[in-house]
Amino acid sequence: MNYFMYLILFLSVIISGTSVLFINISSKNLKLILSFSGAFLFAISVLHLIPEIYLSGTPNVGIYILIGFFAQILLEFFSEGIEHGHIHVHKHDHQHNAFPYAMMIGLSIHSFLEGMPLANLSIDSHNSLLTGIIMHNIPIAIALMTMLLQSHISKQTAIMWLIIFALVTPLGTFTSYAIGQNMLFDLSIYFDKIMAVVIGIFLHISTTILFESSENHRFNLIKFIVILLGAGVAIASL
Protein backbone atom coordinates (compact mmCIF):
# COMPACT_ATOMS: atom_id res chain seq x y z
CA MET A 1 0.00 0.00 0.00
CA ASN A 2 1.38 3.38 -1.05
CA TYR A 3 0.92 5.55 2.03
CA PHE A 4 2.62 8.51 0.33
CA MET A 5 -0.13 8.53 -2.31
CA TYR A 6 -2.84 8.74 0.36
CA LEU A 7 -0.94 11.50 2.13
CA ILE A 8 -0.43 13.64 -0.98
CA LEU A 9 -4.08 13.24 -2.01
CA PHE A 10 -5.13 14.46 1.42
CA LEU A 11 -2.59 17.27 1.80
CA SER A 12 -3.14 18.70 -1.70
CA VAL A 13 -6.76 19.43 -0.76
CA ILE A 14 -5.97 20.70 2.74
CA ILE A 15 -3.14 23.02 1.64
CA SER A 16 -4.98 24.48 -1.37
CA GLY A 17 -8.26 24.83 0.53
CA THR A 18 -6.81 26.50 3.62
CA SER A 19 -4.80 28.87 1.42
CA VAL A 20 -8.06 30.79 1.00
CA LEU A 21 -7.77 31.78 4.66
CA PHE A 22 -4.44 33.51 4.06
CA ILE A 23 -4.41 34.50 0.38
CA ASN A 24 -7.04 36.41 -1.53
CA ILE A 25 -7.59 34.22 -4.60
CA SER A 26 -9.65 36.27 -7.01
CA SER A 27 -12.22 34.82 -9.39
CA LYS A 28 -9.89 35.67 -12.28
CA ASN A 29 -6.96 33.77 -10.76
CA LEU A 30 -9.21 30.80 -9.91
CA LYS A 31 -10.29 30.64 -13.55
CA LEU A 32 -6.63 30.55 -14.62
CA ILE A 33 -5.96 27.68 -12.20
CA LEU A 34 -9.02 25.90 -13.57
CA SER A 35 -7.88 26.46 -17.16
CA PHE A 36 -4.51 24.88 -16.38
CA SER A 37 -6.06 21.89 -14.61
CA GLY A 38 -8.68 21.44 -17.35
CA ALA A 39 -6.04 21.40 -20.10
CA PHE A 40 -3.90 18.98 -18.07
CA LEU A 41 -6.84 16.62 -17.45
CA PHE A 42 -7.88 16.66 -21.09
CA ALA A 43 -4.33 16.07 -22.30
CA ILE A 44 -3.55 13.11 -20.00
CA SER A 45 -6.94 11.59 -20.86
CA VAL A 46 -6.31 11.80 -24.61
CA LEU A 47 -2.59 11.01 -24.60
CA HIS A 48 -2.39 8.36 -21.90
CA LEU A 49 -5.52 7.16 -20.12
CA ILE A 50 -7.76 6.55 -23.15
CA PRO A 51 -5.12 4.65 -25.21
CA GLU A 52 -4.27 2.41 -22.24
CA ILE A 53 -7.90 1.60 -21.42
CA TYR A 54 -8.50 0.60 -25.05
CA LEU A 55 -5.40 -1.61 -24.98
CA SER A 56 -6.77 -3.40 -21.90
CA GLY A 57 -9.11 -5.40 -24.12
CA THR A 58 -12.21 -4.56 -22.09
CA PRO A 59 -15.26 -5.13 -24.33
CA ASN A 60 -17.31 -2.04 -25.22
CA VAL A 61 -15.02 0.20 -23.17
CA GLY A 62 -16.29 3.26 -25.01
CA ILE A 63 -19.75 2.68 -23.52
CA TYR A 64 -18.31 3.06 -20.02
CA ILE A 65 -16.52 6.27 -21.01
CA LEU A 66 -19.87 7.61 -22.19
CA ILE A 67 -21.51 6.45 -18.95
CA GLY A 68 -18.93 8.44 -16.97
CA PHE A 69 -19.41 11.49 -19.19
CA PHE A 70 -23.19 11.54 -18.73
CA ALA A 71 -23.04 10.46 -15.08
CA GLN A 72 -21.08 13.64 -14.35
CA ILE A 73 -23.95 15.66 -15.81
CA LEU A 74 -26.27 14.03 -13.26
CA LEU A 75 -23.79 14.59 -10.42
CA GLU A 76 -23.65 18.27 -11.28
CA PHE A 77 -27.34 18.62 -10.45
CA PHE A 78 -26.19 18.07 -6.87
CA SER A 79 -22.66 19.51 -6.92
CA GLU A 80 -23.83 22.51 -8.98
CA GLY A 81 -20.66 22.54 -11.06
CA ILE A 82 -18.20 23.29 -8.27
CA GLU A 83 -15.87 20.80 -10.03
CA HIS A 84 -15.28 23.47 -12.64
CA GLY A 85 -15.28 26.50 -10.38
CA HIS A 86 -18.93 27.44 -10.03
CA ILE A 87 -19.63 28.89 -6.59
CA HIS A 88 -23.24 29.16 -5.41
CA VAL A 89 -24.36 30.36 -1.99
CA HIS A 90 -27.83 29.19 -0.99
CA LYS A 91 -30.08 31.59 0.89
CA HIS A 92 -32.00 30.01 3.76
CA ASP A 93 -33.51 33.16 5.22
CA HIS A 94 -32.71 36.85 5.37
CA GLN A 95 -29.93 36.40 7.91
CA HIS A 96 -28.37 33.02 7.22
CA ASN A 97 -27.28 30.91 4.29
CA ALA A 98 -28.21 27.23 4.05
CA PHE A 99 -25.42 24.67 4.18
CA PRO A 100 -25.18 22.93 0.77
CA TYR A 101 -25.47 19.28 1.83
CA ALA A 102 -26.59 18.14 -1.63
CA MET A 103 -23.53 19.80 -3.15
CA MET A 104 -21.23 18.01 -0.69
CA ILE A 105 -22.87 14.66 -1.46
CA GLY A 106 -22.54 15.11 -5.24
CA LEU A 107 -18.95 16.30 -4.94
CA SER A 108 -18.07 13.42 -2.61
CA ILE A 109 -19.49 10.79 -4.98
CA HIS A 110 -17.49 12.38 -7.79
CA SER A 111 -14.24 12.36 -5.76
CA PHE A 112 -14.82 8.81 -4.45
CA LEU A 113 -15.15 7.45 -7.99
CA GLU A 114 -12.01 9.32 -9.09
CA GLY A 115 -9.96 7.67 -6.39
CA MET A 116 -11.01 4.08 -7.11
CA PRO A 117 -8.81 3.31 -10.16
CA LEU A 118 -5.63 4.46 -8.35
CA ALA A 119 -5.41 1.14 -6.51
CA ASN A 120 -5.03 -1.04 -9.59
CA LEU A 121 -3.11 0.64 -12.41
CA SER A 122 0.25 0.32 -14.13
CA ILE A 123 2.93 2.68 -12.83
CA ASP A 124 2.69 5.08 -15.80
CA SER A 125 -1.11 5.32 -15.74
CA HIS A 126 -1.10 5.50 -11.95
CA ASN A 127 1.26 8.49 -11.94
CA SER A 128 -0.69 10.26 -14.69
CA LEU A 129 -4.05 9.71 -12.98
CA LEU A 130 -2.67 10.69 -9.56
CA THR A 131 -1.23 13.92 -10.97
CA GLY A 132 -4.48 14.63 -12.81
CA ILE A 133 -6.58 14.14 -9.66
CA ILE A 134 -4.28 16.41 -7.65
CA MET A 135 -4.38 19.10 -10.34
CA HIS A 136 -8.15 18.75 -10.45
CA ASN A 137 -8.66 18.83 -6.67
CA ILE A 138 -6.63 22.01 -6.10
CA PRO A 139 -9.13 24.41 -7.74
CA ILE A 140 -12.06 22.38 -6.33
CA ALA A 141 -10.70 22.79 -2.79
CA ILE A 142 -10.23 26.53 -3.35
CA ALA A 143 -13.76 26.92 -4.73
CA LEU A 144 -15.24 24.75 -1.97
CA MET A 145 -13.55 26.66 0.85
CA THR A 146 -14.51 29.99 -0.74
CA MET A 147 -18.14 28.90 -0.96
CA LEU A 148 -18.19 27.57 2.62
CA LEU A 149 -16.81 30.84 3.98
CA GLN A 150 -19.34 32.81 1.95
CA SER A 151 -22.06 30.68 3.56
CA HIS A 152 -21.19 32.42 6.84
CA ILE A 153 -20.32 29.28 8.76
CA SER A 154 -17.40 29.40 11.19
CA LYS A 155 -13.86 28.84 9.94
CA GLN A 156 -13.61 25.76 12.16
CA THR A 157 -16.72 24.24 10.56
CA ALA A 158 -15.48 25.10 7.07
CA ILE A 159 -12.14 23.41 7.79
CA MET A 160 -13.98 20.36 9.15
CA TRP A 161 -15.91 19.98 5.87
CA LEU A 162 -12.70 20.54 3.91
CA ILE A 163 -11.07 17.69 5.86
CA ILE A 164 -14.04 15.45 5.12
CA PHE A 165 -13.74 16.25 1.41
CA ALA A 166 -9.96 15.66 1.55
CA LEU A 167 -10.59 12.14 2.90
CA VAL A 168 -13.07 11.08 0.20
CA THR A 169 -10.66 10.43 -2.70
CA PRO A 170 -8.23 8.41 -0.49
CA LEU A 171 -11.27 6.51 0.81
CA GLY A 172 -12.23 5.62 -2.76
CA THR A 173 -8.69 4.40 -3.39
CA PHE A 174 -8.61 2.32 -0.19
CA THR A 175 -12.02 0.82 -0.92
CA SER A 176 -10.79 -0.20 -4.35
CA TYR A 177 -7.59 -1.63 -2.81
CA ALA A 178 -9.66 -3.62 -0.29
CA ILE A 179 -11.79 -5.01 -3.12
CA GLY A 180 -8.67 -5.96 -5.10
CA GLN A 181 -7.25 -7.78 -2.08
CA ASN A 182 -10.57 -9.60 -1.59
CA MET A 183 -10.90 -7.89 1.79
CA LEU A 184 -14.49 -6.99 0.91
CA PHE A 185 -15.62 -8.93 -2.16
CA ASP A 186 -14.10 -9.66 -5.53
CA LEU A 187 -14.93 -6.94 -8.02
CA SER A 188 -11.46 -6.68 -9.52
CA ILE A 189 -12.77 -7.66 -12.96
CA TYR A 190 -14.58 -4.31 -13.04
CA PHE A 191 -11.50 -2.13 -12.46
CA ASP A 192 -11.03 -1.29 -16.16
CA LYS A 193 -14.69 -0.37 -16.45
CA ILE A 194 -14.44 1.90 -13.41
CA MET A 195 -11.35 3.48 -14.97
CA ALA A 196 -13.31 4.09 -18.19
CA VAL A 197 -16.10 5.77 -16.18
CA VAL A 198 -13.53 8.04 -14.50
CA ILE A 199 -12.08 8.94 -17.92
CA GLY A 200 -15.57 9.94 -19.02
CA ILE A 201 -15.88 12.14 -15.92
CA PHE A 202 -12.50 13.72 -16.70
CA LEU A 203 -13.54 14.40 -20.29
CA HIS A 204 -16.75 16.10 -19.21
CA ILE A 205 -15.09 18.29 -16.59
CA SER A 206 -12.05 19.22 -18.67
CA THR A 207 -14.03 20.11 -21.78
CA THR A 208 -16.52 22.12 -19.72
CA ILE A 209 -13.66 24.07 -18.15
CA LEU A 210 -12.05 24.70 -21.54
CA PHE A 211 -15.32 25.77 -23.16
CA GLU A 212 -16.03 28.14 -20.26
CA SER A 213 -12.52 29.59 -20.36
CA SER A 214 -13.54 31.74 -23.32
CA GLU A 215 -15.91 34.32 -21.87
CA ASN A 216 -18.35 35.76 -24.39
CA HIS A 217 -16.33 33.93 -27.08
CA ARG A 218 -13.51 36.46 -26.75
CA PHE A 219 -9.91 35.43 -27.20
CA ASN A 220 -7.94 35.71 -23.95
CA LEU A 221 -4.19 35.44 -24.52
CA ILE A 222 -3.30 34.75 -20.88
CA LYS A 223 -5.84 31.93 -20.58
CA PHE A 224 -4.71 30.50 -23.90
CA ILE A 225 -1.10 30.45 -22.69
CA VAL A 226 -2.16 28.81 -19.41
CA ILE A 227 -4.10 26.17 -21.36
CA LEU A 228 -1.10 25.45 -23.58
CA LEU A 229 1.07 25.25 -20.46
CA GLY A 230 -1.27 22.72 -18.85
CA ALA A 231 -1.27 20.56 -21.97
CA GLY A 232 2.51 20.96 -22.27
CA VAL A 233 3.08 19.75 -18.73
CA ALA A 234 0.92 16.69 -19.46
CA ILE A 235 2.94 15.95 -22.62
CA ALA A 236 6.22 16.37 -20.75
CA SER A 237 5.07 13.93 -18.05
CA LEU A 238 4.61 11.06 -20.52
Regions with little confidence, pLDDT below 50 for 5+ residues? none
- Total domains, how many? 1
Class from helix and strand fractions: mainly alpha
Radius of gyration: 18 Å
Q: How many strand units?
A: 2
* Number of H/I helices: 8
Average pLDDT works out at 82
**How far apart lie the N and C ends?**
24 Å
Topology at a glance:
Blueprint: H1 3-18, H2 27-55, H3 61-79, E1 90-91, E2 97-98, H4 101-115, H5 123-150, H6 155-180, H7 191-212, H8 221-236
Antiparallel strand pairs: 1-2
Helix pairs in contact: 1-5, 1-6, 2-5, 2-7, 2-8, 3-4, 3-7, 4-6, 5-6
Summed up:
With about 240 residues, this protein is an all-alpha fold. Helices cover about 70% and strands about 0% of the residues. The protein contains 8 helices and 2 strands; from the N terminus they run αααββααααα.
Give a quick set of tags describing it.
single chain; 238 residues; mainly alpha; 8 helices
Task: Give an overview in words.
The chain has 238 residues and is mainly α. The chain has one domain. It has 8 helices and 2 strands, in the order αααββααααα. The protein has a two-stranded antiparallel ribbon. Strand 1 (90-91) and strand 2 form a beta hairpin. Helix 1 runs parallel beside helix 5 (123-150), helix 2 runs antiparallel to helix 7 (191-212) and helix 5 runs antiparallel to helix 6 (155-180). It is globular, with a radius of gyration of 18 Å. The mean pLDDT is 82.
